[in-house]
Amino acid sequence: MNKKKLSIIGTVGIPAKYGGFETLAEYLTKDLNKEYDITVFCSSKSYPEKLDSYNNCKLEYINLNANGAQSIPYDIVSLIKSLKFADTILILGVSGCIFLPFLRLFNKKIRIVTNIDGLEWKRDKWNKYTKSFLKFSEKLATKYSDVVVADNKVIQNYVRDEYKVESELIAYGADHVNKVEISTELKEKYTFLNDKYAFTVCRIEPENNIHIILEAVSKNENLTFVIIGNWDASDYGKDLKEKYSSFTNINILDPIYNQTILDQFRSNCYVYLHGHSAGGTNPSLVEAMYLGLPILAFAVEYNKETTQHKALYFNSSIELIKLLNNINDTKLIDLSKDMKTIAEENYNWNLISQKYSSLF
């Protein structure tokens, strides 16, 4: 029996080493390769070794960057190549959806499933022209896709209200993360890991509210805080690093790409601070939940939906200061149990893969 041919486009590629969509593609190929003949499009800019296959799936390379301005032609070329063989195309993100009306002219039978991501056009980092383009691409995605996937109930409601389209709600898995004890070597290198510490790891961007978190923890000298991010990528990051590096309780670290070391930092923290305000269901949040970390999250509806309104929330540095001052061990234990239970029930990869499979 011939297997249905599935093309996955819109990611940097696999093996995953970038972000949420890449991890999603990796687990879809791992879980569904017996049911489907899968091809994943990858950026040769990010994979100089160019594996022919991975997880028993074919890898095809495009000589463009998968992110930034080149993401548009990258996705369009992937779509054109997919037309030649695919029964179903899974599009992750809306950059290339500007091409969908033309694709439909050539092939009306091919099934298109699009995960529209986290309302990318709303993000502060884009100028007004980029925002307009992304919004238009999003509109075309909802019009020309057979199925639209939303990763958060807030986005699902938005698609219904804005475009009168019903979407499928599918989040992300998190059961790939591991709780790892802190090694003696790491404790010797970073002596603050011997203390109880709060932790954050993220891109250093205004919409992740790093300024709010740092302002709050700077007022609590008894709380050791560790934050890892790309501080030198923007003036925002450089300014914050300069302002808060002198605080003895704040430990500002540059990016760490060794996953085992990152796992040690994250899985042993006293409390996890999540400042993201954009982007739907955030993979780093569901990973923290799966590790059973007590979570204090920025009070946007995305985060409340992801945590089923059972985390603790803040809108400002003043509110976060109050939470940090008033939290106790009993509350932290309850928080930890709630986060772990929600994640185990909702954010496991086999469940996510089967939900996607039902759409193909």
TrEMBL record:
The answer on whether this UniProt entry bears the keyword Lipid biosynthesis reads: no
| Taxonomy, superkingdom | Bacteria
Alphabetical keyword list: Transferase
**UniProt name for this protein:** Glycosyl transferase
Q: Which SUPFAM superfamilies match?
A: UDP-Glycosyltransferase/glycogen phosphorylase
The residues covered by the Glycosyl transferase family domain are 185-311
- Pinpoint the DUF1972 domain residues: 4-175
A GO molecular function for this record?
A: glycosyltransferase activity
